[in-house]
């Protein structure tokens, strides 16, 4: 009579090894599935807040070749003291690690019943470059000063990299 139970220590070890790998993979996939469901629910029903990235750590995990990062956020919500929360975030197809740098301000949503559940909506919106041009910050008459002022606005995160590139091209086209 053939027995289905492994007979040798090597067979037992291999069975336990593959069983452990299977359980770990199931746990990791389940964890990400739960995180995705919580994030979807918080994005739909959560309260708006703002957060600052305090720490950014690559988890070493990849989903569809895209890295998963763990962020430590300082969350600021109306009517509550600021607090810290951890969030795992997978980069989008056209994002780089620089898209989530330390010190970056983010728009987030927070679960009403459990403030530790935080979902990232995106970067805090900055004013368009034209708003600063109208106020006369970059001088239209002096392109060198305009480029210096424009660089200063980028360095102070008042404008995005795309807005900087667009306005820089406009200034250079007038030369």
From TrEMBL:
Pfam families: SHOCT. Keywords: Membrane, Transmembrane, Transmembrane helix. Residues 146-172 form the SHOCT domain. It comes from the Bacteria. The keyword Transmembrane applies. The chain crosses the membrane at residues 12-33. This is SHOCT domain-containing protein. It comes from Myxococcus xanthus. The lineage of its organism: Bacteria, Pseudomonadati, Myxococcota, Myxococcia, Myxococcales.
